[in-house]
Amino acid sequence: MSAQPRLLDQVRNVIRLKHYSIRTEKSYISWIKQYIKFHSLRHPNLLDATHVESFLSHLAVDRHVSASTQNQALNALVFLYKQVLNIKLEEFGINRVRSDFILFRMSCGHNKVSSDPTY
């Protein structure tokens, strides 16, 4: 009776099978680890669209990452769910982050989305 490989080993195996670059592998592994840690070490099988969205919002609002960085994190999570866990993220209804939309934190503590690049 052989045990199934651990999640990150499964991710590495699929990435290598698809001949992705080593930098992509390291990046995806890092984002997946951050996602799991953000959700108190719960397995991604137990998480849904709201968890993905809250992680991406955390990156934008609390860590102030750029839209391209959010998209890189989203790509890693899409890969995890679609290629490794065989769960379709389309069912989650998650969209890509557009670089002309800037998320920022207002002084009163509320979040606002603006398409005005002057912010």
Question: Would you list the SSEs in sequence order as H and E?
Answer: HHHHEE
Query: How much strand?
Result: 5-15%
Q: Overall mean pLDDT score?
A: 82
User: Spans of 5+ residues with little confidence (pLDDT < 50)?
Assistant: 99-119
Shape: globular
Helix content: 40-55%
Task: Report Rg.
Answer: 16 Å
Number of strands: 2
What count of helical segments does DSSP give? 4
Spatially, the strands of the biggest sheet line up as: 1-2
Distance between the termini: 58 Å
Sheet with the most strands, sense and barrel status: 2 strands, antiparallel
- Structural class of the secondary elements? mainly alpha
Structure write-up:
The structure is a single chain. The chain is mainly alpha-helical and 119 residues long. Helix content is 50%, strand content 7%. A hairpin with a 5-residue loop joins strand 1 (102-105) and strand 2. The chain is globular and about 40 Å long.
